Amino acid sequence: QVQLVESGGGLVQPGGSLRLSCEASTRIFRLYTMGWYHQAPGKQRELVATITGGGSTNYADSVKGRFTISRDNAKNTVYLQMNSLKPEDTGLYYCNADGNPVWGQGTQVTVSS
User: Fold this and answer.
1) How many Å is the maximal CA-CA distance in the chain?
2) Distance (Å, whole) CA 15 – CA 4
């Protein structure tokens, strides 16, 4: 099992930016496809971005052009750069490794004026 610790959330105005980080406890981090997930209040968790070990990325339509996922395999860390934030981006953000059954505590993002 991979343990995950997310950080970087906060309160931001619409149109603002945040950078989320997620550190994973695994010696084979570079082999995992990593994903960021968004859970809006009262809704199910949804996948918003993925990145393979080789750096190929994919995004949900709702965040395309605004969010960028990246990774630093030397630091066992995956990032989510969030620009042009909207109120509907509010919620908990989690990262996870493909197939990993354990979830971290998430980091809260609130977009509000």
Assistant:
1) 41
2) 28
Per-residue pLDDT tens over the stretch 12-65: 999 999 999 999 998 889 999 999 999 999 999 999 999 999 999 999 999 999
Contact assessment for residue 47 and residue 40, using Cβ atoms and an 8 Å cutoff = no
**E strand or H helix that includes residue 68:** strand 67-72
Give the residue from 93, 89, 83 showing the smallest Cα distance to 21.
93
Residue 43's alpha-carbon distances to 38, 39, 66, 88, 91, in angstroms, are 9, 6, 21, 12, 9
Q: Which amino acid is at 106?
A: G
